[in-house]
């Protein structure tokens, strides 16, 4: 059995892995999961002993979770173009610097709108306005930092070429953009960066990767999303409680 | 100018870098940035890291922030023994997996445990409510279980048979709740035995030296200067939620 990727394109790290594998022509078997149906909690859908999270990579007997680890694994194993994860020490560390900040500071920030507008209502919960206000402020701070500290005057976040950092960041931001947050208003530099990343990836691949997240609001409005199974409820409540 | 490391050993990622550099005989200039004196908010430090966070590294003209990036930089630049971050693709991926996982899980929970039990009372002048503390500790407990079951399993170290960056990043995190007086190893013999192995691999003296500040924090943390308290307050309040 060749490479298998367990993904749900509703999740931003899954999309980063998908877009990277596709763009680089890495052959893989897509194992599409539906998180809203609780597929990741069901041993039938995910390989044994996984962390019940997507994305998961299965390469023969080797199982790997965490999008960043998966992206690095793929870039080394399939010897993708050097710019994605440069062999030059300082250039590579700029990517890790970004990913460290991403993991600590923005990872749980840009998904909140989706939770507030689509996912929490599925189980009858309303996220308090006070929290949403705080989240908007947090997104603002994160975007400012992304623009000033990371992007600066460069073409991409860590240099003049696209890297793993750019796709991780783009997919994180898309989580809010697709729900109708205009993150790029008043941020022409960041908007131009997005254009560059999407142009590099190609419009078709972007459309394909983002179709699920772009359609989620409409599906919710038309009541076409599945009712989360009971075992999902407690997990969803926990996630919602963790919104600062 | 050679390698400079901007650290405060009160911070868990700073301890990981300190231990790693010392253990591997990497020569560096220690630049202490005292967080509780607000030194990370100074203009001088903003020149090094505009995000005003420790740790930071300066190597000639090259400046680098974020602990995982700094550890990886030191690993490659100083050609330390392979086990810290193996060349083997799958072995390395195990280390990367842990380093990516810990951000919103162990890191968040260990930090909150220390802040809720030790730091907030100092800043706010009153203890954090028992309900909030209990919720924080319950979340920490769940994370510890994942650390033991999914990462450590029956191996000697988190990512394999030898100590790696993953172990160093994990143990320095766990010493945060330990410093706050939480008995996190009680009832977890596997995790306790792992801690002994990590301490032995690092060396007891170095381990002790790096953790002296945090292990005394419970009894010694105070804010002498009220103006510093004002400066730190916005960040502190952001952390209580």
Short description:
In chain A, 55% of the residues lie in helices and 7% in strands. With 244 residues, chain A is an alpha+beta fold. The mean pLDDT of chain A is 94.
Provide tags for this entry.
heterodimer; A: 244 residues; alpha+beta; Glutaredoxin; Glutathione S-transferase Yfyf (Class Pi), Chain A, domain 2; 2 domains; B: 241 residues; glutathione transferase activity (chain A); cytoplasm (chain A); glutathione transferase (chain A); EC 2.5.1.18 (chain A)
Textual characterization of the structure:
- The complex is a heterodimer of chains A (about 240) and B (about 240).
- In chain A, α1 packs parallel to α2, α1 runs antiparallel to α8 and α3 packs parallel to α6.
- By secondary structure, chain A is an alpha+beta fold.
- In chain A, strands 2-1-3-4 form a four-stranded mixed beta sheet, with helices on one face.
- Chain A has two domains: about 80 residues, Glutaredoxin, CATH 3.40.30; about 160 residues, Glutathione S-transferase Yfyf (Class Pi), Chain A, domain 2, CATH 1.20.1050.
- In chain B, α5 packs parallel to α7.
- Chain B has about 240 residues and is α+β, with helices and mostly antiparallel strands.
- In chain B, about 45% of the residues are buried.
- The longest helix of chain B is centred in the middle third of the chain and has 23 residues.
- Chain B folds into two domains: about 80 residues, Glutaredoxin, CATH 3.40.30.10; about 160 residues, Up-down Bundle (Glutathione S-transferase Yfyf (Class Pi), Chain A, domain 2), CATH 1.20.1050.
- The chains are: A alpha+beta (about 240), B alpha+beta (about 240).
- Chain A: It is an enzyme of class 2 (transferase).
- Chain A: GO terms for molecular function: glutathione transferase activity.
- Chain A: Its main location: cytoplasm.
């Amino acid at each position: 059995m060749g490479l298998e990727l367990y993904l749900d394109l509703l999740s931003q790290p899954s999309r980063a892995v998908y877009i990277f594998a596709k763009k680089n022509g890495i052959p893989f078997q897509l194992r599409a999961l539906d998180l809203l149906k609780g597929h990741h909690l069901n041993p039938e859908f995910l390989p044994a002993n996984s962390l019940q999270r997507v994305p998961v990579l299965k390469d023969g007997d080797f199982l790997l979770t965490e999008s960043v680890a998966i992206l690095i694994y793929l870039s080394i194993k399939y010897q993708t173009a050097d710019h994605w994860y440069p062999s030059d020490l300082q250039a590579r560390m700029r990517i890790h610097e970004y990913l460290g900040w991403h993991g600590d500071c923005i990872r749980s920030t840009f998904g909140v709108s989706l939770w507030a507008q689509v996912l929490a209502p599925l189980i009858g919960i309303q996220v308090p306005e006070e929290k949403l206000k705080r989240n908007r402020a947090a997104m603002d701070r994160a975007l400012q930092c992304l623009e000033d500290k990371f992007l600066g005057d460069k073409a991409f976040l860590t240099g003049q070429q696209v890297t793993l950092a750019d796709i991780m960041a783009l997919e994180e931001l898309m989580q809010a953009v697709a729900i109708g947050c205009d993150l790029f208003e008043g941020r022409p530099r960041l908007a131009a960066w997005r254009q560059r990343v999407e142009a590099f990836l190609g419009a078709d691949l972007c459309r394909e990767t983002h179709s699920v997240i772009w359609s989620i609001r409409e599906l919710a409005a038309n009541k076409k999303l599945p009712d989360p199974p009971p075992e999902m409820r407690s997990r969803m409540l926990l996630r919602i409680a963790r919104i600062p | 100018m050679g390698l400079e490391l901007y650290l405060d050993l009160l911070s868990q990622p700073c301890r990981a870098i300190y231990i790693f550099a010392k253990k591997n005989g990497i020569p560096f200039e220690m630049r202490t940035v005292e967080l509780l004196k607000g030194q990370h908010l100074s203009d001088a430090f903003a020149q090094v890291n505009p995000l005003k966070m420790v740790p930071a590294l300066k190597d000639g003209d090259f400046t680098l922030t974020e602990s995982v990036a700094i550890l990886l930089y030191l690993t490659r630049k100083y050609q330390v023994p392979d086990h810290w971050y193996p060349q083997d693709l799958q072995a390395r991926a195990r280390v990367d997996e842990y380093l990516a996982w810990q951000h919103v899980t162990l890191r968040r929970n260990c930090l909150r445990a220390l802040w809720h039990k030790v730091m907030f009372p100092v800043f706010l002048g009153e203890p954090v409510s028992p309900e909030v503390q209990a919720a924080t500790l319950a979340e920490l407990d769940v994370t510890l279980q994942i650390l033991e079951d999914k990462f450590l399993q029956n191996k000697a170290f988190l990512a394999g048979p030898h100590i790696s960056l993953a172990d160093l990043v994990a143990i320095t995190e766990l010493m945060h709740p330990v410093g706050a007086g939480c008995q996190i190893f009680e009832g977890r013999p596997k995790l306790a035995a792992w801690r002994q192995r990590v301490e032995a691999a690092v060396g007891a003296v170095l381990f002790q030296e790096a953790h002296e500040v945090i292990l005394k924090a419970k009894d010694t943390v105070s804010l002498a200067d009220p103006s510093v308290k004002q400066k730190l307050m916005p960040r502190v309040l952001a952390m209580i939620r």
